[in-house]
Specification:
globular; about 120 residues; 3 helices; alpha+beta
Length: about 120
Amino acid sequence: MNCPACKASMAILEYNGVELDFCFSCKGCWLDAGELGLILNGTPDRPDDLKLERASRGKRRCPRCGARMLVGPAPATGVEVDACPAGHGVWLDAGELEQVARSRGPSERASVVASFCADVFGKTK
């Protein structure tokens, strides 16, 4: 699969049985439908604080279906999320998965996810 941001070929990384498509070039990651919820909550439902607000059609295309993704801020995270309009998944730029995990408050799961992101994807500033 090619990266929706820089078009480089992505690699598959596994975290607790969930496969993340990671771009070593731009350090972004693609999460198929349900994977973000599995990582953050242990359930495939997308967390409410990651549902897009005021979304508009972006320039990036879904790596699954090729549709232009919707772009918008995810409440309470400080992250602008790119999401496939057909529901195939979400794209997070470099450091955004860690930022999302940290925004969820001081829980053991969030801390473990944030540490994993920092170790594998590199520390965010």
